[in-house]
Amino acid sequence: MHPHQTLSAIFHHAVSAVHPVQLMRNSVQVSGRTITVCGSSHTLDAGGRIWVIGAGKASAAMAQELEHLLGGHFPLQGFIVTKYGHALPLQHLAWLEAGHPVPDANSVAASVKILEIAHTATAADMVIFLLSGGASSLMADFPVNSSLEEVQELFGLLLASGADIHEMNTVRKHISMIKGGWLAKSIYPAPLYTIILSDVPGDDLSIIGSGPTVPDPSTFADTMAVLQQYRLTEKIPLPIRNYLQEAQEGLFPETPKPGDPDFSRVVNCLAGTNRIALEAAAGKARELGYHPHIFSSQTTGNAPTVAEMVVQEAISWSGPLPACLLWGGETTVQVSGDGTGGRNQHLALAAAIALAGQENITLLSAGTDGTDGPTDAAGAIVDGYTVINAEKLSLQANTFLQRHDSATFFSKAGGQMITGPTQTNVMDLIIVLKV
C-alpha cells in the first residue's frame, strides 16, 4: 500500500473510533425508567419528560444515536444545532444549522430556542445536553447594547490572533449568557446530564464549547488580560469593550463559579477524546505492520513551529522501523496574509518545506471533524517530494506559506485530504510514517 493510502486508512480508522454511534452506545444505557449516563443513573419521575438539547459539529450524530437508544423507551423532545452540512435526519428532535467558525443569525436563534427549553424543563424532567466542538459559534448571543455583527467581528479577531482555544473561549464565555455555566443555571432545578466530545487539549470541561454546563473559574479580568496579550483591546468593537470594562467594575454579573448550588444536579460526562482516536490509530498502524508510538494528545503551539518539531522528531527517530509516529491536539495560526487555509494545511505545508528531499517520511495533518478552517478539506498529506513537484508546476511553497494560502497550494499541487463531515470532533491528528 502506498504511504498516502496507509495514512488515509489509519486516519479514517481513528475517526471511526470516536464516531458518536460508538461513543453514545458506550455512554448511555436504559433499564426500565432508569437511564444511566457514564455510570450516573437517573430514574425518571412518573409524568417526567426527557428534553434533549445539543450544540456542536457532532450533535446531529449524537442526537440520532440517542434517539435509537431512548426513542423506543421514552417520548423525546428537544432541539439541536449543528454546523452547515452536518445535519442528519431526526425523528423526534428539531434541528437547525448555523455558522462556524463565526456565528450567524441562526446561531442566535439556536440560543433562544435552547434557553426556551431550559426554562421549560422542571425538576421532574430530565435534560440531556449533547456538546461537541464548534458549540461556541453555533450557540451564540451578544452582550447588552451590542449586536451580532460586533460579536462576529470579535470572533474573527480572535481566530486570526494566534490565541489558543483556552484563551479564545475565556473571552467568548464573558460576552454570553448561555456559555460559561449559564445554561446549567437556566436548566436548574431539572437534572442535567451533559455528554461531551472534547476538542480541547487537556479536556478541560470548562473550555469545551465554552463550558455552558460547567462552573467557570475564569473572570472578566482574565478576559481583558487575553485581549491585552494579543493587542486586541483597542481593535474589538467599542460596545463590547465597554461592556467588558463595566463588567470588570462589577456592573454585570460574573459567570457562575465552582461551588454554585445550581450545579448540584449536573453531571458532565466526557465521552470522546483525542486520546481514544490516537489509540485507535496506533492499533490500525500495528495491524498494517508499523511500529506505532504516541507522543502526545495535547500538542499545541504555532502550526509551523509544531511542524518543525514533528519533522525533526521523525528525522531523528531511532526506534524500530517502519514506524508510525502520532500526535494529537490543536495548533494555532496567527494569520497575516490574505490566503485561504486552516491550521492543518498550514502545518502540512510548513512540514513539506522542512521535509524537502527526504525519501522515507510521509506526514498527514488533518482535523477529525473533516474540515480545516473555512475550507472543505480536512487537511493534507505531504512527503519529501511535495515541494519539489510543486516547483515543477511553478508553485513556490514558501510564498503560499507566507500568504497563509495553504488550501490554494494543495488544491493545485495535490495532497489535500477531503473527507466531508465526519460527524465527530476530537481535535486534530498528525500521523507520520517513517520507513
UniProtKB/TrEMBL annotation:
Keyword rRNA processing included in the entry's annotation: no
Superkingdom: Bacteria
Gene Ontology CC terms: cytoplasm
Pfam family, one: MOFRL
Alphabetized UniProt keyword annotations: Kinase, Transferase
InterPro entries in alphabetical order: GK-like_C_sf, GK_N_sf, MOFRL, MOFRL_assoc_dom, MOFRL_protein
Keyword presence, Methyltransferase: no
One MF term in the entry's GO annotations: glycerate kinase activity
PANTHER family: GLYCERATE KINASE
Protein name: Glycerate kinase
Organism whose genome encodes this protein: Chitinophaga solisilvae
